[in-house]
Specification:
By secondary structure, the chain is an alpha+beta fold. The protein is built from 14 helices and eight strands.
């Protein structure tokens, strides 16, 4: 972790007996660091009392101030903030005379030693999240296995296996647990907005190219009523001034799904959905990984399109989760 950017909320190290006090801190160099303000909340006292105890601790030589009090930059602060090591926190905790300080001393003796000596504690929240991710993987495996036997997917067996392999990589349990990457979707934000008029331009260009190659019927890209306009609006719909699909991954996944399942075109829905999916990601600089590979290659996209086509409506959430995780 970089010293100049301390991120809070990574580790829950203490919760008071009445569960009214939670202290979220950061781990660095095998210890934890708190500000004087956090210590005041932790021990149920005022900041001046914390300052007094710290001054006495350093003045008496119990702890070395230089090695136990670094200054780091944090968000919403125009100057470096002092952080105090776990040794300093414990020393203060054994000097403060309050009910919370007493509770902390009992907790520290029982729990904190195990955390530092054994290298772990049981974090029920993270364990539960990891279990949920494992369930998601099981659901995806079952879904892909059940669909793989469909006649429309004949010859796509290898791509189904590749999809499963790519999906499982995003849910590697040890990596998710160790790095705390347990979110369903990496909320990628994009500036490019794919509106209805732009889609019409793209359709016209694609139809001209495919017609010249004799790969499109006269009905290819012909709109089926007002479905397309409504569909494109739904991708950017809001609720209480917030976008329903806030990330690039969610928008792309729903764009692919809605065009294939809602048939906004008389002909060419799967091909148009696939092209718009790639176009949208590319315009938002989200199509390729850092190594230059496409996040979803052409063969995998074909398999995804067919999976969506043969899926039941009630399986929409499963499909969307698979697509969004493949885009991580």
């Amino acid at each position: 972790m970089k010293k100049e950017e301390i991120k809070k909320g990574e580790i829950l190290i203490y919760q008071s007996a009445d569960k009214k006090i939670n202290i979220d801190v950061s781990l660095d160099q095998d210890t934890v660091w708190l500000t004087q303000k956090q210590m005041a909340v932790l021990f149920g006292t005022k900041i001046p009392a914390i300052t007094k105890h710290l001054n006495n601790i350093f003045k008496s030589g119990e702890l070395d101030e230089k090695s136990n009090v670094p200054k780091w930059n944090i968000a919403n602060s125009d100057k470096p903030v002092k952080f105090y090591s776990l040794d300093a926190v414990i020393s203060v905790g054994y000097r403060v005379n309050s009910k919370r300080a007493t509770q902390f001393r009992v907790w520290a003796t029982k729990t904190l030693k195990d955390y530092l000596v054994k290298g772990y504690i049981i974090n029920e929240k993270r364990l539960s999240e990891t279990q949920n991710r494992f369930k998601e993987l099981q659901i995806a495996v079952d879904f892909l296995r059940n669909k793989s036997g469909h006649e429309l997917l004949a010859g796509q067996e290898q791509e189904i296996l590749n999809l499963l392999a790519d999906y499982s990589k995003t849910l590697t349990l040890l990596e998710q647990y160790d790095k705390e990457k347990v979110t369903l979707v990496k909320n990628g934000k994009g500036k490019f907005i794919l509106g209805y008029e732009k889609v019409r331009e793209i359709i016209s260009e694609i139809k001209s190219e495919l017609t010249a190659k004799k790969e499109a019927s006269e009905f290819f890209g012909t709109e089926n009523g007002e479905k397309l306009k409504g569909l494109m609006g739904s991708i950017y719909q809001t609720f209480d001034k917030k976008e329903l699909y806030g990330s690039i991954e969610e928008k792309a996944a729903h764009l692919l799904y809605f065009i294939i399942k809602d048939h906004p075109f008389v002909d060419g829905n799967k091909r148009m959905a696939s092209f718009l999916f790639v176009y949208f990601l590319d315009k938002n600089n989200y199509l390729y990984r850092e190594n230059g590979e496409k996040k979803v290659n052409d063969n995998a996209l074909v398999a995804l399109a067919l999976l969506i086509a043969i899926s039941d409506r009630q399986e929409k959430d499963k499909i969307v989760k698979i697509v969004t995780n493949l885009l991580l």
